[in-house]
Design goal:
The protein has helices at about 10-25, 50-55, 110-120, 145-160, 175-180, 195-200, 215-230, 260-265, 275-280, 285-295, 320-350; strands spanning about 1-5, 25-30, 35-40, 60-65, 85, 90, 100, 125-130, 165, 185, 205-210, 235-240, 270, 300-305, 315-320. With about 350 residues, the chain is α/β, with parallel strands linked by helices. The strands form three sheets. Strands 13-12-11-10-9-8-7-14-15 form a nine-stranded parallel β-sheet. A four-stranded antiparallel β-sheet has the order 2-3-1-4. The protein has a two-stranded antiparallel sheet with strand order 5-6. A hairpin with a 4-residue loop joins strand 2 and strand 3 (about 35-40). The chain binds phosphoenolpyruvate and manganese (II) ion (MN).
Length: about 350
């Protein structure tokens, strides 16, 4: 940790800070420059609160050197972690990027869901997504079919041999969802629902953790840390956009840079969701391509059999026909990325 003192900080203020840090067991390296003094404190940063240190008189800034997340950090696992599902599908590292598609919400029309699932399977997608318990901004909007939706998802996924990903909003629903889902989604709004993170941290199925709409990357990785420190190491992150200045043209700002940043600081796989990231269906394809090129381990996108009449998120859902066109082009890109990944993997394994 680095404590930067104000240029006008008095010797008394500097010594006070040194004493506080030494008292917490930090080893101090004092750098008294011509303009200002910088205190390098080496030790366990969990023993102090950087914000409270920053509020002392004479302190300009407190900078953390070591990341506050441990299990999620790159240092704790220099190799990329790969999440493997019982049917052999893998997410992360040099594995071929995966595709998760399906409607925002599972609706009454099972045939509609089945048509989406069949198209997804035909195009080589591995996961069928669909909301059963929906987090809606308005309490008057469609809230999801709950268990009925889970039954539909299971049936459609069994018929197409795909994996199910669906959101859990409440710890009370978790046992039920665990009976049906292969991948448990924590939605953006619940990224910092710590009780829920703890509960999925104790479960034995992989977790898809979506980035909160206003969460920094550090907060995102700390949310993953909550899951991991409770025992579950199978965490897949999902960049789904953060609030921007202007929602006229795009619902959120899909933070493509978050993908390589997360990969630099963490070993966890990360996928991107351009449907929620942009909120407009025409933006799905270019942003999915951008995310894949930036290194995403997969893409989630919303596909509906009748988007104009969808119960939720129709504007950001592709129709089945549009999906097939988009997916055809994404598959080409994924094929090229997969080829490069395999070359890299080979180089890596022979130590080039
Ligand atoms: C969803 O996947 O349907 C969803 C609600 O996503 P998010 O939590 O990213 O808004
Ligand atoms: Mn949605």
């Amino acid at each position: 940790m680095i404590v930067v003192m104000e240029p006008k900080a008095t010797q008394e203020q500097i010594q006070k800070m040194v004493k506080i840090l030494e008292g917490k067991g930090f080893k101090i390296v004092l750098n008294e420059g011509e303009v200002m003094t910088v205190i390098a404190a080496i030790g366990d940063r969990r023993l102090v609160n950087p914000e409270s240190l920053a509020s002392y008189d004479g302190v300009r800034e407190v900078k953390l050197i070591q990341e506050p997340f441990k299990l999620a950090s790159r240092e704790s696992c220099p190799e990329d972690s790969v999440v493997t599902f019982p049917n052999g599908v893998k997410i992360g590292g040099y594995e071929r990027p995966v595709m998760m598609v399906g409607p925002c919400s599972v609706e009454q029309d099972f045939d509609g869901l089945m048509r989406v699932a069949l198209a997804a399977k035909e195009m080589g997608c591995q996961f069928l997504r669909g909301g059963a318990f929906k987090p809606r901004t308005s309490p008057y909007d469609f809230q999801g079919l709950e268990e009925k939706a889970l039954v539909y998802l299971k049936e459609a996924s069994e018929k197409t041999n795909m994996l199910v990903v669906t959101e859990v909003m409440d710890t009370l629903d978790l046992p039920l969802i665990l009976d049906y889902a292969d991948l448990i989604q924590i939605g953006a709004r619940n990224m910092q629902n710590f009780k829920l993170l703890k509960a999925v941290g104790k479960c034995n199925k992989p977790v898809l953790l979506k980035r909160g709409p206003a969460a920094s990357i550090r907060e995102f990785l700390l949310a993953a840390e909550h899951i991991m420190c409770n025992g579950n190491q199978n965490v897949i992150l999902c960049e789904r956009g953060v609030k921007g200045l202007d929602s006229t043209y795009s619902r959120n700002v899909l933070d493509i840079a978050a993908i390589p940043i997360v990969k630099k600081y963490s070993h966890l796989p990360i996928i991107a969701d351009p449907s929620h990231g942009c909120g407009r269906r025409y933006l799905i394809e270019p942003m999915a391509k951008a995310a894949l090129i930036a290194g995403a381990n997969g893409i989630m996108m919303e596909v509906h059999h009748d988007p104009d009449n969808a119960s939720s998120d129709g504007a950001q859902s592709l129709s089945i026909e549009q999906f097939k066109d988009v997916q055809r082009r994404l598959n080409k890109l994924v094929g090229r990325i997969d080829y490069d990944n395999q070359v890299e993997k080979k180089k890596h394994s022979i130590g080039v």
